[in-house]
Amino acid sequence: MSQFYEIVVFTTQYVYSAQPVLESLDPFSAFIQYRLFRESARMHNGELVKDLAYLNRDLSKVIMLDTVKEHAALQPDNAIILPKWDGTPGDKGLVGLIPFLESIAIHKVPDVRPILSKYADQDIPTAYAAVEAEQKRLAIEEWNRSHPAGSSPGLGAFTLSSIFGAPGAPQQPHMPQSYLEQKRAEAQQIYVEEQRYFAEHAEEMRRLIEEDKQRQLKEMKGSLFGALGLQGPPKEKEGAGAPPPGVAGAPLGGGSTGQTPPVVGVAAGAGGKSA
């Protein structure tokens, strides 16, 4: 669906519990554009709600999928309320919505809210499938009326007698795909190619993601220690340490004392390592 929509996950779960789940669903951040957590929700009439105004998008183009009606209290006309998943394996509730959502996006509906209102309190996959089937039936009837059998030359059916020069039986021209069917086929092909790409480059992408995490962690650690003043004094320039032999302050005799000077300003970091 990311080919047709900007996908945003808006959950009432806290970031620490939801983020691992989202990373499992979309490990490469290829499909979910933005993620909003409980911190972005607000209270309305004593209920927790998801204010779609926070998306900063034209609400005539926003569709909200949720299982809790109260979450959409501020923009009910933008919501499709689904039954909660009861744990049944193989549940197809979300998959069944794909044709409906594809149709809205492909036809570039100017405002999704009247359409959502029309299907309110209905089982959308079933209701929309019936509408699309009726549209297909009418299109076939219109095609058959305007393209009767044998109306196009050169489209005769292959028969055994045609091998010996006899004319083939008249055949009705093949009905082309509708605009909706063409766009769906294109989207499915793109999806297959995307999945193939991710399968072929998964290890490399995971390596890059892990390297980026380690880099960010290192930068965060350095910033934290710097803020706490635990990085120690700045290093002196080479040659500017102990005075040379014979200079005031050097040990008597100009030689080394053989003792190791004390370490100053070192603090223990994460994992027991020194910062």
TrEMBL record:
Assigned keywords, A-Z: Membrane, Mitochondrion, Mitochondrion inner membrane, Protein transport, Transit peptide, Translocation, Transmembrane, Transmembrane helix, Transport
Record keyword Transport present: yes
Record-linked InterPro entries: FCP1_dom, HAD-like_sf, HAD_sf, TIM50
Membrane topology: Single-pass membrane protein
Keyword check for NADP: no
Pfam family, one: NIF
Signal peptide: none
Gene Ontology cellular component terms for the protein in this record: TIM23 mitochondrial import inner membrane translocase complex
Top-level taxon: Eukaryota
Reported function: Essential component of the TIM23 complex, a complex that mediates the translocation of transit peptide-containing proteins across the mitochondrial inner membrane.
Complexes and interactors: Component of the TIM23 complex, at least composed of TIM23, TIM17 and TIM50. Interacts with preproteins in transit.
Protein name per Swiss-Prot or TrEMBL: Mitochondrial import inner membrane translocase subunit TIM50
Lineage of the organism: Eukaryota, Fungi, Dikarya, Basidiomycota, Agaricomycotina
